[in-house]
């Protein structure tokens, strides 16, 4: 109950102590604006002027404000729902698409802010990279700069989309007319079991209705092709025997793993279903609940070996004592973004198989496609349950650097193409880093080539493709690729050292390098087997000794640097939507959009619909957004050697940490031999993976023969572009080399870092295990 006090009428004397006055003032809180209290404050001013001033400034009209407050300011700031609303209004990456925020606090997951806090801590830590070298610091700052660039432009688009019309907010069903009613009555007379039934798509569930449910990823592992064969060699007797492998597939996502049974042979068949459960922190909040998930599904192939460790032969008929070992044969990675954009993926995946696999040998097949590729392929069918809606694209409404009529023409041409072919996306206007929309043809211009090596004078297409593939990428979920298009120029990509996961930025740079080499090329936008909507580079070359023949077309993957023939059935490109270069934009209007059945002659209007022609001219090359020159920094050889030693120490410590129950012994002689082999493996990639063994490499392999006499060796090289140390540690751990429980096993680990201009790095890791022969 609120008490009211009467005006004060107190006669003060100098004998009253200041402490009593202060306590009296705190209890009564007299109003200095009340005329009845004027004499009191004048008397107090005569006694102590400073105290009178404090009492006047301390007075509050609402002295019982704390009694009326329903919570404190600390409780208000710590409220998770209010914090979530503030972060969504601020436009943070993790919460910008959250629409349905729960009314109850207990419905919000407790760890929903972990990713945001980690990102903020990482961004602040990027400037405090104590103990890190210049190469590691540049990767951290580059990734942070790319994310900030996308975030800035996204907020700019959000401000531009503030003016909405009625149909953007209110969705009304169309009023039925005679046409719709007629179709309804016609369904009554249709046959219940038609001869040619149309397949009904599975009902797609809105993500906001997935509260409390799990998202399951079902992976059907069908079969594999061209698996290397195990080679058992006895160097003492000079015998070499080919033993059929016993492969199995293991899939992993975060802390979940699942594997198939063991098959047999170089072309095994499983036809088994494996399941993974995905659960996002914001599954109840975001319409695209997988947006915060930036991980990947890792698929590894192993060879299971049964080792007999029974020591007493007299008990062999009654006792069995065996140990299972696994040898890594290859792997492939499937981003979550590709999986949730299409709900299902079906195709043949090329596994990342090392060329030199100690203890194994690949049988040469009669088919030409498998002969020159030297790879293993895996047939998969991946499906999401329940199927999710495709994320709605963000309609960018920014200022356009093109003229108004030119912009309207490109929008009209793109809209007509979508009406005719709704499933084929085509890009006409994209966002430049300046925040303005630019025509896509302005991103093409010949750029000066980097110096791959001082020993190489003639730079080939394979060398520049290798250089571009070593630039790291950022996962598509982090950058909203596919829903938000920001294209980087060549100098920006080389400066930031990070590009989008779709490969558009890498493809643009590769096209500019091909133009400098006088190689006719196009940027191909379509769908890939493992990446969903992605970008590739299409090139044409004349047939040798047949100038009148039709040119031969090849497809380059800018993220791996590998080249495929358009007639190759194992090509990673599934569908082709459009082609872009400095001259024009072509939309694929053929009935067949699969790459092996597509005709690539862009001069045929029946196959390709050009955007520019008789009625509208293409933009001139003078208006390209690409720079005239690119300043390349020389290769950081000294920093690469420091990073090489640091990575080797980190990986060795990680191997010993994983082998807690066993002692880890390192074979120093084998390590020294592997260090000599690794530089030659990098040079092999400049020739497109040529199979010819150099004399120097032949000498190093001869040194390994001394070890093969007394030891059984199993090993392989791993090659990755340098992004961060954690990625390399995960790659080594996924091979399962540390799971060998043989008490006599020895290990060898060698690291080589090859520097390129602009701090582009290629990291090679050679792993090997040695077991003494009996």
Based on the model shown, name its key terms:
774 residues, alpha+beta, Immunoglobulin-like, four-stranded antiparallel β-sheet, 21 helices, disordered N terminus, Coiled-coil and C2 domain-containing protein 2A, C2_domain_sf
Précis, in short:
With about 775 residues, this protein is α+β, with helices and mostly antiparallel strands.
What does this structure look like?
There is one protein chain. The protein is of the alpha+beta class and 774 residues long. It folds into 5 domains: 13-49, no CATH class; 73-121, no CATH class; 205-364 and 371-389, Sandwich (Immunoglobulin-like); 404-623, C8orf32 fold; 637-772, Pathogenesis-related Protein p14a (3-Layer(aba) Sandwich), CATH 3.40.33. The chain is built from 21 helices and 25 strands. Strand 24 and strand 25 form a beta hairpin. It comes from Melanaphis sacchari.
What secondary-structure arrangement, pairings included, does this model have?
Elements: H1 18-28, H2 38-47, H3 49-58, H4 65-68, H5 73-77, H6 80-90, H7 114-125, H8 134-160, H9 166-169, H10 178-186, E1 215-225, E2 229-234, E3 239-243, E4 247-253, E5 256-259, E6 269-278, E7 296-308, E8 322-335, H11 336-342, E9 344-350, E10 360-361, H12 368-373, E11 377-385, H13 404-420, E12 429-431, E13 437-439, H14 461-469, E14 473-474, H15 476-479, H16 490-496, E15 499-500, H17 504-516, E16 521-528, E17 532-541, E18 552-556, E19 563-565, E20 573-580, E21 585-588, E22 608-610, H18 637-658, H19 668-685, H20 695-710, E23 711-721, H21 725-734, E24 746-755, E25 761-772
Parallel strand pairs: 14-15
Antiparallel strand pairs: 1-6, 1-11, 2-3, 2-10, 4-5, 4-7, 7-8, 9-11, 12-13, 16-17, 16-20, 17-18, 18-19, 20-21, 21-22, 23-25, 24-25
Helix pairs in contact: 2-3, 14-17, 18-21, 19-20
Protein name: Coiled-coil and C2 domain-containing protein 2A
GO biological process, one term: non-motile cilium assembly
GO cellular component, one term: ciliary transition zone
